[in-house]
UniProtKB/TrEMBL annotation:
<dbReference type="GO" id="GO:0016627">
    <property type="term" value="F:oxidoreductase activity, acting on the CH-CH group of donors"/>
</dbReference>
<dbReference type="Pfam" id="PF01243">
    <property type="entry name" value="PNPOx_N"/>
</dbReference>
<feature type="domain" description="Pyridoxamine 5'-phosphate oxidase N-terminal">
    <location>
        <begin position="7"/>
        <end position="107"/>
    </location>
</feature>
<dbReference type="GO" id="GO:0070967">
    <property type="term" value="F:coenzyme F420 binding"/>
</dbReference>
<dbReference type="InterPro" id="IPR011576">
    <property type="entry name" value="Pyridox_Oxase_N"/>
</dbReference>
<keyword id="KW-0560">Oxidoreductase</keyword>
<protein>
    <submittedName>
        <fullName>Nitroimidazol reductase NimA-like FMN-containing flavoprotein (Pyridoxamine 5'-phosphate oxidase superfamily)</fullName>
    </submittedName>
</protein>
<dbReference type="InterPro" id="IPR012349">
    <property type="entry name" value="Split_barrel_FMN-bd"/>
</dbReference>
<dbReference type="GO" id="GO:0005829">
    <property type="term" value="C:cytosol"/>
</dbReference>
<dbReference type="InterPro" id="IPR052019">
    <property type="entry name" value="F420H2_bilvrd_red/Heme_oxyg"/>
</dbReference>
């Protein structure tokens, strides 16, 4: 992967905290859900309820698609990421605790979270490993995207 595109991907990952993740339901229909995330380099992590449909979907088929972007008033400033990836449940207690400790850092300094952070036993934590990343950047032209395969 080109170093400039890697920096752009990491810049976009670091600048956001919300993504839409799509999983496959048992009936074959995709299910898209907005979730908070944290990244450690190119690895993304998100949480969900123990009994969520997302967790059940991923347990059956670990393939996910996701998008990370933001609204903008200027057409030429549209940028974002979309990915095809595999989601894996985090079972290592040390990794789970590290992820939970990283999450509050995605919010602006001084932000008080309205609820206490869950413990690793209260949620499912998933690590998302990208396979294909599309880097959308309209500053390079209408609909411009660079495709990266990992």
């Amino acid at each position: 992967m080109d170093d400039a595109i890697r920096r752009k991907i990491l810049e976009l990952l670091d600048a956001h905290r919300i993504m839409t993740v799509a999983t496959l339901r048992p009936d074959g229909w995709p299910q898209a859900t907005t979730v908070g995330y944290v990244n450690d380099g190119m690895a993304l992590y998100f949480l969900c309820a123990l009994d969520s449909q997302k967790a059940a979907n991923i347990a059956r088929d670990d393939r996910v698609s996701l998008t990370i972007d933001h609204d903008t008033a200027e057409l030429w400033t549209i940028s974002g990421l979309s990915m095809a990836a595999h989601a894996h449940r985090v079972t290592d207690p040390e990794e789970a605790d590290r992820v939970l400790a990283l999450l509050p850092g995605k919010y602006p300094p001084g932000t008080t979270l309205p609820v206490k952070m869950p413990t690793r036993d209260e949620v499912r934590i998933f690590r998302v490993a990208p396979v294909v990343i599309s880097v959308l950047d309209y500053s390079k032209g209408f609909g411009h995207a660079d495709l990266v395969t990992l």
